[in-house]
Amino acid sequence: MGGMKDADIIIGGIKDGKPYFADYHAKGKQTPDVDASQDWTLLSASENSTHTTLKVTRVFNTCDDEDVPISNDTTKIIWAIGATDDIVQHRKRGAASANILDSAAGTWNGPESEIWHINVKTKLPANDTIYWCTAHKSPDYDVKRHVVGFQYMYGWAVGGDPLILPENIGIPLNEFGLPEYFLLEVHYDNPKKLVDLHYSTGVEVYTTPRLRKHEAGIIRMGYETDIGLMIPPNSSNYIIAGHCSGTCTENRLPEEGIKVFTLILHSHLAGRKMKLRQFRNGVELPWWAYDNNYDFNFQQNRILPEHKQIFKGDHLTFECTDDSSDRSPPEAILGGLSTRREMCLAFVMYYPRISTLNNCGSHFGERATLLTKLGIEKMQPINDPFDELVTAPPKLKFRTLHVLENT
Asked: What is the largest CA-CA distance in the chain?
């Protein structure tokens, strides 16, 4: 998770005009040990007045306990540099997350392209979580255009690489030759409840009048964010699953099915692993969207190297593995908007666009049973759409559902 313990390390450079390079591993915060098996290969090395560049290669899985397999999981890459070639603790060091095997995000500079700038300036209230919504009118294009990419603009954010759509896919804009209105929702996290915060953010939307062959849509899959999403205290591998049933896809998908080309796997601070499972005729297909090392601070569009087909009758299950064991004091985690509450969602982008399926998942249908088990007779809404205040019986009065679930 970004530290030295159990890290797979390579150390190299150029000394007296000659490259040096070796495969190491770390047992903790100490000088790394040289691997018994040297599995990394140096392809080239160069140096100038400002940079040292090493080009290296290795097989994905060396079956060596001193190496870390390279997979579809989010990988934390640690780095350290020094002014000399001595192998000592360096002050210049850091860590960054990466999806090493994902396709590159790409760039956009197509013919007749235009950028629609959506800007939001906000003075934030002193709340720990704020979802700020603003309406924006599209440019006055008199003909239909296609959106072909997005770039987020901010000073800091979770994740953040641009999304450039494949060359044959676009999202319709001004579909009838008239401006449209769009709602932009921005989630601000302010856990210290700081006051007088001013923030500017926005989105750059890349558009083109050259319409593409396919139009894209989005389906939200997973578990509905409601009171039924509940992670017990001190749970380290608690699985939440949301199902998009075969009956639903049979009734809502076209005969030729749909093809998925990118998706976002989304959870909050308790999320550790996620995977989208696909079943056809009772048989589970190979996984093609998963992350066994989820990093909340690195949420990217996972661009698929091969577009994946979903047919009528396919059953899809989105699973999240959560961990509440690091909460102090121990507490149950409920579904909700705050990053300290939880979500379990996949935003699946596909083509061709359909109007018959936008949301496909599970929700908690036994509210009355849950309230009975907690001894709750009546509740009333409060300023939290995912919590309520107990009004009866008297012994539980004025407690919230969240408080009761932690007593």
From this structure: 81
Quick one: tokens of 198?
Answer: 């001013």
> What's the rounded Cα separation, in Å, for the pair 170 and 258?
15
What is the tens place of the pLDDT at every residue in 161-195? 788 999 999 999 999 889 999 999 998 888 899 99
pLDDT in tens, 17-31: 999 999 999 988 888
Q: Which fold has domain 216-362?
A: Jelly Rolls (2.60.120)
Task: Kindly list the distances between the CA atom of residue 373 and the CA atoms of 29, 55, 124, 315, in Å, as whole numbers in the listed order.
Answer: 48, 61, 39, 32
Q: What is the pTM of this model?
A: 0.88
Looking at the chain, how many residues does it have? Answer: 407
What residue ranges do the domains of the chain occupy?
Answer: 8-98, 114-213, 216-362, 370-404
Say if residue 283's pLDDT is above 70: yes
